[in-house]
DNA sequence: ACCTGAACACCGTTCAAGT
DNA sequence: ACCTGAACACCGTTCAAGT
């Protein structure tokens, strides 16, 4: 009962907007996360969202960046162990929000946190003994596998949460890829 | 000058509708391929499309199936050569239509032609010496890599056709994966 | 059967106006 | 600065009606 004025419903944070977007994405997938519904969830007029983000894709990119920012990188152990750890963490965080995954694969994926992960992967593969050119190819191949696997695992489970198959086949494929990369590194 | 009646603009074929959808997808990406624009391109009322397809996703699925149906499978040579040939053909056909790729990764991918390719892959990997369980994992891993690579290669190039990088790094990653799979097969 | 226009319930985004 | 309602140009989809 702060006041009776019904116009300024209280200034929303950028964080509140992203929280609302993530919630809608989780429950109803991409079509549910419209600017209008996000605004309604925050309790604000649709146009207010444009005070914080230039357009809808900017909201989606910011959300992706926030999720990628939470990924832990750079743990100890061998380069293989470190790569596996990143891949598992990435999978776990994205599978928890299946509605976000389609955005990830149809967007530019060029934010600072995406870069941070790509750079880390490249550095780890450089430490494997591969020449820089092959290390770049290997880090690209790993990113492809990780994102592809997450996409295939979640693409029709945004609501059913069927994807409880566990990371078994994910890890199997990842390790075959790493086997191939390691064998290539040992050739030189 | 067949007639002056302006209502029945001539019955469109299912094929004509898919052609129009593909054209719009190629030039303007997913948002350009709306039911209304497809209908306009064919020269028909929007509602007429619903005579042939129950909804928009059905149009998209049919288009994906048509593209996958053109993929050649089952050439001669070793299982590795056959897998590589399928992967290259799949890439070539999808990269030629970048606008279709996002649909592919956010749809069910359960049509008969998608099944045909998956079955062929599974059979080839069974011939590699892997036990059935590992062959299934390997065919899943390969599908993941192929679709993920195509997605990453095309996701921001639906209009610029930048993706002339060629299949080099695609083939490199594919071969590392096959190296790992082959090594696993030889263990048993 | 096949195709139509009108209508419904939505979109993203812009803009002039209010505080 | 920040937030608003009204408006514009779209969507997918349904439906009663025409041939």
Q: Quickly give the structural class of chain A.
A: mainly alpha
Task: Please give the domain count of chain A.
Answer: 2
Strand content of chain A: under 5%
- CATH H-level superfamily of the largest domain in chain A: Tetracycline Repressor, domain 2
Number of helices of chain A: 8
Strand segment count of chain A = 0
The SSE order of chain A reads HHHHHHHH
CATH T-level fold name of the largest domain in chain A: Tetracycline Repressor, domain 2
User: Which spans of chain A have pLDDT < 50 for at least 5 consecutive residues?
Assistant: 1-7, 157-163
Query: Rg of chain A from C-alpha positions?
Result: 20 Å
CATH architecture tag of the largest domain in chain A: Orthogonal Bundle
Q: Which class of the largest domain in chain A in CATH terms?
A: Mainly Alpha
Explain what you see.
- 2 copies of one chain form a homodimer.
- The termini of chain A are far apart.
- The longest helix of chain A is centred in the C-terminal third of the chain and has 23 residues, at 132-154.
- The first copy, chain A, contains 8 helices and no strands.
- With 188 residues, the first copy, chain A, is mainly alpha-helical.
- Chain A has helices at residues 14-32, 35-42, 56-69, 79-95, 101-105, 112-126, 132-154, 168-186.
- Chain A is elongated and about 60 Å long.
- Chain A folds into 2 domains: 14-54, Arc Repressor Mutant, subunit A, CATH 1.10.10; 72-187, Tetracycline Repressor, domain 2 (Orthogonal Bundle), CATH 1.10.357.10.
- In chain A, α1 (14-32) packs across α2 (35-42), α3 crosses α6 and α4 runs parallel beside α7.
- In chain A, 64% of the residues lie in helices and 0% in strands.
- Chains A and B meet through α7 and α8 of A and α7 and α8 of B.
- The first copy, chain A, binds a DNA duplex (19 and 19 nucleotides) through residues 7-9, 11, 31, 34-36, 44-48, 50-51, 55-56.
């Amino acid at each position: 009962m702060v006041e009776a004025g019904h116009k300024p419903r209280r200034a929303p944070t950028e964080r509140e907007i992203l929280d609302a977007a993530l919630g809608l994405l989780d429950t109803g997938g991409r079509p549910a996360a419209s600017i209008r519904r996000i605004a309604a969830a925050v309790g604000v007029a649709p146009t207010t969202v444009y005070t914080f983000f230039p357009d809808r894709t900017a909201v989606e990119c910011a959300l992706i960046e926030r999720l990628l920012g939470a990924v832990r990188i750079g743990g100890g152990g061998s380069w293989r162990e470190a790569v596996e750890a990143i891949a598992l963490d990435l999978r776990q965080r994205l599978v928890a929000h299946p509605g976000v995954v389609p955005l990830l694969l149809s967007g530019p994926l060029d934010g600072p946190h995406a870069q941070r992960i790509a750079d880390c992967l490249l550095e780890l593969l450089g430490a494997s003994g591969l020449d820089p050119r092959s290390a770049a190819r290997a880090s690209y191949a790993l990113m492809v596998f990780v994102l592809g696997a997450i996409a295939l695992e979640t693409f029709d489970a945004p609501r059913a949460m069927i994807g409880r198959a566990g990371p078994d086949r994910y890890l199997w494929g990842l390790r075959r890829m790493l086997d191939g990369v390691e064998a290539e590194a040992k050739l030189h």
